[in-house]
């Protein structure tokens, strides 16, 4: 199960606020008098008309919120403007908010930045904070991360815990300031201790990953719990991951599901995605693909690209919904365009195979490249295959090697295996059997059954490593149990010949059958030989012929010759010289000399 882990959050503060005092505020709050919003409005108006900038600002809030008067956004904007021109930092801030949202005025990013600057210079911390955000994203001003850092520092020193969180993020990412994880952790701790749940989440991440502090999963879990209890849905989602993985807490899949549910209900889309995964796999909850689909759909609609990608997979496989490859393509595209590397990768597979969309190898290669550049190791591996085969791109074995290496270094078992094959065969690099062995071992340890099988062959033949038949058997067994048909076939040969194990023809037959059913042509061929010669099983020429046919169709030229001989001699099949010649020709054209000899003899 792939559960999405933690992601750093940057908080945004954008709100409307007033700064009036005395009798105005008493009537507005009902402190010492009966609450009377209409009376408060009259007092705000009188104050404004008497030249009080704060009175104009509060009157603007009343018109914006409809407190004691009918909502009039244009009037609110006018009053904020009057307040701002009269020196009210809050008036400038609130007017900036309206220009940002395009409420009561036409949206104007440049004007927004001017007004937040004015609010900040007037001592309003929220103005500094929001101006920092604007310099960070380059909205209405040229992007300037260093200026963002200054403004977040000013906000943090002015008492804004959100400013401290955002400043921490700048230090953690090295944006606009030299990277300093320890300083980031300090700032997150300060924010967390002052009640900012986002600071607790980010500090939890630092403890989880050992960044800026010594890794401490238990402390991370405590911080996520604190954030979750303070209403920060991301904290609930991250704590769910910890319970799912058993990091810092005992594994408790039911608790993980409960936390993901809580996060999802609080509109944290990643909680919906992870809860969907649990329903899809039946982990911690009863399996319910239909519920998983609902959750992925909810996450996708909330802008979580992983939700779109997972929903696409459900449509692709017909899991909990009728299979619809075209809909899967649409969802993978949406995920990819929203920044999901796995979405791009899956969309590449659809274009490569022509499922739900017309086959387009060049487009597949582009998508694999995009996925690779976004950190998806499988994208690098698949792009390497495209360069190796010349599909969608020009053949470039050197480029294929480079991509396999990149994939392998990023934890892709298939990348390590394919790179091992390149070193074994000297394709795109100088042949190096010892290096191939290292890479097969790495692939095997990463879970590649093919890697285990190829490593077993190396130990059996002494290619790049000393001969060790016992080790070869161990690796073939691991490969076979991992689903490698060739591993089962090789293990069968070991039992047939007594290589590294005692001879056991019955076990050999069983393994060849497993290999053949798993799609291994050599497994079918070997099983055919056992049936033809009555070894480990009662002789059955007809069954042997059937297995040779299967192996021949899978590209095993020796099986074509053997089947040809059976047709020539009427052994297990009705004699048919023409069919025999056809099979010998197929073997001959496939490069098997015996096929040519038998064909010439006929």
Topology:
Layout: H1 22-29, H2 37-49, H3 53-65, H4 73-85, H5 89-101, H6 109-121, H7 125-137, H8 145-157, H9 161-173, H10 181-193, H11 197-209, H12 217-229, H13 233-245, H14 253-265, H15 269-281, H16 289-301, H17 305-317, H18 325-337, H19 341-353, H20 361-373, H21 377-389, H22 397-409, H23 413-425, H24 433-445, H25 449-461, H26 469-481, H27 485-497, H28 505-517, H29 521-533, H30 541-553, H31 557-569, H32 577-589, H33 593-601
Which word captures the global form? elongated
CA-CA gap between termini: 58 Å
Enumerate the spans where pLDDT stays under 50 for 5 or more consecutive residues.
Answer: 1-34
Number of strands: 0
Structural class: mainly alpha
The CATH superfamily of the domain at 13-143 appears as Tetratricopeptide repeat domain
Q: Quick one: biggest sheet? A: none
What's the CATH topology label of the domain at 13-143? Serine Threonine Protein Phosphatase 5, Tetratricopeptide repeat
| DSSP summary: helix tally | 33
Overall mean pLDDT: 93
Tell me the helix content: 55-70%
Question: Can you identify the CATH class of the domain at 13-143?
Answer: Mainly Alpha
Spatial extent as radius of gyration: 34 Å
Quote the beta fraction.
under 5%
